[in-house]
Amino acid sequence: MARTISALLLGLGLSLVSQQAWADRLPPPVAAFSASQNLTVDGVALSARLFHDKGLERRESRVDGLNNLLIIRPDRQEALVVQPESKVGMKLPLTDPEVGVVATTLSMLSGTAEGTETLAGEAVTRYRVQDITPDGSGFDGRVWATKDGIYVKLEGRTGGEGAAAIAMSLSDIRRGPQNPALFEVPAGLSIMTLDPLDGRVPPALQPEKEKKVP
To answer: What is the pLDDT along the chain (214 residues), one digit of tens a residue?
Structure first.
């Protein structure tokens, strides 16, 4: 389910970064905080605990009875997908569909400020975003963000192949510096870097496949 959501969200991400800005850029993510994140894509929901510090991000979730961890490091141009029970992780580029949408990517969108309001205890500006590429991909909707780049709410549609309705919101936002260890590789973890042909998840995390008879 998590892989399906992240793949659908790809159109909201890096396909937009080369487009000429026609309005205001959304604010860069310079805040430090933790929050509960609720994400829904075409009716499929995923909840996570989010930790963020000046662009570095950690998401902790539980999918199909298993704990999942995603560490996002824009400063290193990579992300780390971990399933703690297996003690196996995989490094991915930020452009991989498994990573989905991150705050540094959202800040590259262009939008028009419509007004201000308060959400989850934070003063936010509501932006109308119609950042669509010539091939029809991109994002059409609204984004609510604080001045220091906490993306509190998002709703709209991704375009192009795999277009989907998307809604995201944060709650229980707790501002303050986060422990740097949250954004580092957990101790005792075996790290893998797989070629795209080998799949999107480490073999230890993939469902068992039927063996072929020679």
So the answer is: 555 454 444 445 434 433 433 457 899 999 999 999 998 888 888 899 999 999 999 999 987 788 889 999 999 888 998 887 778 888 888 767 667 667 888 888 888 999 999 999 999 999 999 876 666 566 789 999 999 999 999 999 877 666 788 899 999 999 999 999 999 988 877 787 655 434 444 444 444 444 344 4
C-alpha closest to that of 145 among 165, 116, 171, 175: 116
How do beta strands 110-119 and 122-132 pair? antiparallel
| Residue 133: HSE in the Cβ half-sphere, 13 Å Cα cutoff | 17
Phi, psi of 30 (to 5 degrees): -105, -5
- β 190-192/88-93 pair status: parallel
